[in-house]
Amino acid sequence: xxxxxxxxxxxxxxxxxxxxxxxxxxxxxxxxxxxxxxxxxxxxxxxxxxxxxxxxxxxxxxxxxxxxxxxxxxxxxxxxxxxxxxxxxxxxxxxxxxxxxxxxxxxxxxxxxxxxxxxxxxxxxxxxxxxxxxxxxxxxxxxxxxxxxxxxxxxxxxxxxxxxxxxxxxxxxxxxxxxxxxxxxxxxxxxxxxxxxxxxxxxxxxxxxxxxxxxxxxxxxxxxxxxxxxxxxxxxxxxxxxxxxxxxxxxxxxxxxxxxxxxxxxxxxxxxxxxxxxxxxxxxxxxxxxxxxx
Length: 294
Hints:
Blueprint: H1 2-34, H2 41-59, H3 63-85, H4 95-118, E1 133-136, E2 139-142, H5 143-165, H6 167-177, H7 179-184, H8 189-214, H9 223-237, H10 242-262, H11 268-282
Antiparallel strand pairs: 1-2
Helix pairs in contact: 1-5, 1-6, 1-8, 1-9, 1-10, 2-3, 2-4, 2-8, 2-9, 3-8, 5-6, 5-8, 6-8, 9-10, 10-11
């Protein structure tokens, strides 16, 4: 019996953890380049979920096709949103605090908009694959979850390739390391920042589609939960380290799911936060973070 529960917890932990990794990666790119505390990131993700729901129920678009559509639409929206909101923060005495307050306002606006359009009822993406489930050992896993995991891995690999093998990707990594130094060599920091904002929004939109496939229901009120998870992941993995976010997301997901096997379900978040506190005490820079000289 315990073998079944442990295997089920591991499989679901990897699936959910990879989603957490994607959330952490997008937040890491945004914070690393812009030093913007995006408290609306969870709302961006849920907007992506409802966008996939609208495309499927209203237009009959396959959820898998919704992933690139959502990513492109959110990239454009994020690119424009940067020029609309972020440059004004540079004139503030404390840009990070100002960004926190501004994005918190954006989060409230997005949540209110979703509530107005979709009301308070939870919605479900009523879509299934054939076969409905696939057996892995003793466990039957919904095919939708495995498909979401496969798409998630493809996105992570594509993001890794972009960050390490393209001009703008290398520029983004350089900006995360030293934002001031790259301007000396002629990099247009405003264009690069707009790309970073658009990339983070695109990842959030794609993550929202996958969340609609993995979780049974979506609601306008769960955005802050995913924002909190994203910040936990980037603190665990190390600020400004996308690879660290991937490892930390999977670690947090497995811990959360395995805790439900041996402990009451309400205890799962406590275990996850305990690991976070332990890592902060033992390694304040995170698992992959580096101590910066001051």
